[in-house]
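Help wanted!
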Amino acid sequence: MNISIIRKEFLELLRDGRAIGLSLIVSLLLMLALVTGLSTESAREQSIIQAKTADAAAFNAQGEKNPHSAAHFSRMAHKPIAPFSAFDPGVSSFLGQVIWLEAHYRNPAMFRAAEDAPELSRLENFSLAGVLALVIPLLGILLGYGSISSEKERGTLRQLIGSGTSLQTLLFGKFIVIVGILFTVLCAAVVFSTATSILFLDETGPAISDLLLRGFSLLLVYGLYIVSVTAITLLISSLVSESKTALLTLLAVWAIAVIALPRLSASIAEQVYPSPYSHEFWEDTDLRLEANRPENSSSDYEAVERRVIERALGRELEEGEIDDIEINARGLRFEVSEVIDSEGYNNAFAELFENYVKQKNLRRLMSLLSPTIALQHLSQAFSGTDVNAHQHFSNEAERQRNSIIRMLNEEMMFNGTGGASRYLAPAEFWETVPEFHYEQPRIASAWRASVPDFIIIFFWAFAGAAALRLLSRTSTKV
Amino acid sequence: MSELLLAQALTKKFQSQIALNELNLSVRQSEIVCLLGANGAGKTTTINLFLGFLEPTSGTATVDGLDVSSNLAEARAKLSYVPEQVSLYPSLSGLENLDYFIKLSGKKQQEESYLRELLDQVGLDQTAADNQVKSYSKGMRQKVGLAISLAKKAKALLLDEPLSGLDPSAANEFSNLLRKLANDGTAVLMATHDLFRAREISDRIGIMKSGCLVQELSSESFDQASLEKIYLEQMRQA
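Answered by r_m:
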C-alpha cells in the first residue's frame, strides 16, 4: 500500500512542472555552495602550504642569531584545513587560521575571514551546510504543505478514507516520499563532500575511517533534521483545511525557526555572555600575569628557577649546586618568565573558551525552540570546524610555542656562557627546532562534546514523528 | 434478505441544531434505497454517519452487522462511496487513479486488463482511460468513481448526489450501472434531488425533512406524478 502511495506521489511530482523547476534550483544552489566551498578551501590549503614553506625557510635561514631575537621572530602554527570545512566552515572564519608562536606572548589566531563578526555562528555562510539548513525545510515545505490539506480541498481524502484507507497509512506514505526526496538531496551533498575530503587528503590529515565516520554522522544528524522538518510539515498540513493556510503557516514557522531564532539565539548568547573585546582581554590578561609574577628575589621565583634548570638538565640539583652551574642569566630569566606566565595565559584562554561554551549552552537551550540551532552545533562539530576544534588547535599551538621557546632559551642558557655580551646561536641550530605537526581531534571527541545537541535533535525528530502518529490515529476530520 | 445498512434511532446534533433525528432505516442486499429531501434535510449526514466521518450523538449505524462507531475500519472495508463530486488526482489518468484507489482500499494488485475492463463496464472509453483526469468531464469522473466502487466489490454502496450535473445520457448510463450492481447483490443507499431517477431505479424511497425520515415508500406503489405530489406535499407541511 505504501509503495502505491510513494509511486503515485512521485508520478504527480514528475508531472508537475513546478517540482522539476524546484529540484533544478535546489541542485544548482547546492552545486554552487559545493564549488564555492571547495574553491575557498583549496585556495586556503594552497596558501597554508606556501606560508608554511616560506615560514620554515625564513626561520631556518636566520644565520647566526641570538636565540631570544629568534624567539620573537619565531614560527607560525598553521591550522590545517578541517576534514569537512568545505561542507561547513563553521567558526573558522571568525577565530583565525594562524598562531604566531612568539616569546612572552600567547597570541590569538590571526587571519580571520570575518574580523568584525559580532558572534561565532552565523547562517549566512554560503556553504553546503548553510544551504542545506535553509533549503531542506523549505523544500520539505514546498513538497509537503499540500500533502493532506490539498487532499482535503480536492475531496480525495474523504474518498480515500471512505474507501477504507487509514489516515495513518496515507500520512506514512507521504512522509516516506518527502523524507526520501530530502534524504537523496542530503546524501548527494554529504557523499560528494566525503569523497572530496578523501580525495584531497594528505599524510597529515585524519584517517579515511575518521572521514567516513564524520560523513556518516553528518548524514545521521541531518537525517534527523529531515524527519523533524517533514513531521512538522505534515502535521500542519493535516491540521488546517486549506493548502494556502498550510503554506503560509509553514513559511512563517520556517522564517522564525530557521532564520530568526538561530540569529536571535546567537545575539542573546552574546548579550548574556559577552565575548571580550581584544583590548579588554589583553588588559585583563596583563593584570593577571602581573599579579601572578613573584618578586625576582623571592623564594617562589627561586623555586621556579631551580625547576627550570633541573628540567633543562634532566635531573635534580644537589644542595648548593645551583650557584656553581655556569648559566646565561638572561636565558634563564626568559625561561623562568615563560614558565610563570604560562599558567596565567592558560587560565585566561581557558576562561575565554569557557565563555564560548556558555554561549553555546545558552543557544543549546534555545534549540528546544528550533532544531536548526542544534543542527548547526552538530554540523560544525562533525565537520571539525566548531569552537572545540579551534580550542584544541590553540592549546596544541601553545604547547608547541612553549616547546620552541624553551629550546631557544635553553640554547642561550647553556651555550651563551662564554662572556660575550650577546650570544649568537650557530646558523645550523635553527633546523633542529621541531616543526609543528598538528593532529586534528578525532570524531570521537566531537561526539563526546555533542551528546546534548544530538539528544535535542533526536527529541525533535521523535516528538515530530510521535505527534504525527498520534494525529493520524485520533483525527476524524476529513 | 439480510439488512446490510441499518440505522437505529440514529441522531446527530451540532450543538443545539439537530441534523438527524432518531432515524430508523434499513437497506437490504440487492436493494436500492433513495433518500429525497431539500438541502439540510439530513441526507448527507446519514451517509457521513454510515461512513464514520461523523460520530452519532445517539443511536447506531451498522454495516453488515458491524457498529460503525466501534468497528470503523471493518465497517468501512464493506463500504464503497461515491460523492457528488468524485475527487480524483488531476495529473493521473483515469486508469492510474483507479489503480491507486483500489490498492489503497486494501485490494491486491490488479491486472491492467481487469482495470480496463472495469472502466469499460462503467462506459469510459479506452482512450479516455489513458488521459489525465484534468481533462475529464464530471460524468467521466463519476464513471471512474463508480469503477472504484465496482472494483472494491463492497457489500454496500453509498452515493451522495451522484447524478447532479450529469447530462441525461450519462445519468441514464449511471442508473443502469447502479441497477446492475444491485442485481449482483450490493445494497445501495443514494441521496438525491432527482425525483425521476429515484423513482426509476430505487426499490424504496425515503423522504427526509429537517433531519427526520417523514415518509418511506415502495417505488412500485406509485407513479412519477404521484411521487412528485407526495414529495411537494411533505415539503409544504410545517
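OP: Thanks! One thing I noticed: Chain B has two domains: 3-78+154-236, 88-153.
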